[in-house]
Amino acid sequence: MCKGLQQEFPDISISKIRYLEDQKLITPRRTPGGYRLYSPSDVQRLRTILRLQRDEYMPLAVIRQELAAGRMVEEASSSTSSGDGGAPAAPAPRAASPRRMAISVRSGGPTFSLDDIVEDTGAELRLVQELEDFGIIKGVPRDGTRFYDETDREIVRAVRELAAYGVAGRNLRVFKSSAEREAALLNQILAPSLRSRNPERRREAIDALENLAAVASHLKHLLLVRDLRRIIG
């Protein structure tokens, strides 16, 4: 598989693929002997990760959110799985990808216990509890256990990276306040349609909300880049 990707990604290496696996971005199937087998969907997912890194300069934390939201680069897939040292897969033509992040606001998806969150993200229990205290994440109690959705998990993962630079939970209020103001603005724009009893109108409003959220997120990213460039002169 590594050889099959080298034409499009010359700097790809087995160690890099292993690192992405360690970060739980890809999860190839294992044989009883421990040999990794990559399905066509695994290869497609890996191509998406590599393209988002190369073309859109996204950090892994953001790429993880993109994948969770269903982002996937279209490509022709092989009908058979190939192993670590298998025959090279035919490279897909490089396609232009949108610059705006895909955003899904629809509920659903897997939920995770507190222990799952700690294990998946590598965050300390104290950090997760601090985020709950500050209202950054909000677990839902069920059968005596608190459960969190995938967005909560990715928030914890991102905050863990910030914590390595000394960013504490109380410093995250600025992010929380900004997000709340943006959500209130978008709600104000689409409120009548979002509250409609007409299923089709409400569905169209949710689609519009996701598009507006993507545009707003992209704009905020551009403004941040502009201000950071001013900082470094």
From TrEMBL:
SMART domains with a match to the protein in the record: HTH_MERR (SM00422)
Pfam family, one: MerR_1
CDD domains linked: HTH_MerR-like
Low complexity bias (residue ranges): 76-100
Region (Disordered): 74-100
Record-annotated HTH merR-type domain positions: 11-69
Record Gene3D superfamilies: 1.10.1660.10
InterPro entries: DNA-bd_dom_put_sf, MerR-type_HTH_dom, MerR_fam
PROSITE patterns attached to this UniProt entry: HTH_MERR_2 (PS50937)
Record key words, sorted: DNA-binding
Superkingdom to which the source organism belongs: Bacteria
Name of this chain's protein: MerR family transcriptional regulator
Species of the source: Solirubrobacter deserti
